[in-house]
Sequence to fold (231 residues):
Amino acid sequence: MGAFVVLLYGCNEDEATIKSQTLDYTWESGDEGWRFGYSDYPANLSLEDSLELYALNYGHRTLPAEIVPAQKGMLIAGANRSDDLFMYLFKTVEGLTPSAEYSVEMEVQLASNAPTNAVGIGGAPGEAVTIKAGATSNEPRVVIEDGWYRMNLDKGNQSIGGSNMVVIGNAGVKDDTRQYELITRKTDSPLKVKADSNGKIWLIVGSDSGFEGYTALYYAQLRVTVRSIPD
Fold:
């Protein structure tokens, strides 16, 4: 299955406009237009060093064998050598009213093998890996600031959210976790975002890590509800 879209329309004097849409991403057939990114690590590393030292690994993958029934998703992984590694996925939503305001709710299911109440380097492998979700008018990308890759949006830092991304939980599963299990995280209240002049917004989900070790998360499903905010 690809992204399944449910649309509700409202009419004005001239045309029908999208008032609400629900997007379901399962990633069974591919990446569905989602892209990967990393930030909060040194910009002066060679590609080889960044891949080896930070063990960056990402792509459309089959989830670990312990996830039954078998399914596919989006793997994003890395070793947090900088004590602050941010790993994220992002995608556009189009067809909205240009410059109009929208609310966005997100619910993500991901496979994690991070235990709770465990001791880790710098922070716990579960609780110190914060899961965040957000929506923005500008395309998420990295910029170089003082020799480091940083985000061009306000995601907050580690366990703290920002104006463009909110905390929706952490990567911890349970105390006796040894294998991958599915967990669900969702926004407590709608995010607010203004569409750009072309009627686009960008969705972003990711993990902001204070655990100075290796984390590999598989994003399995994502439901996004976008609603127009009346003037």
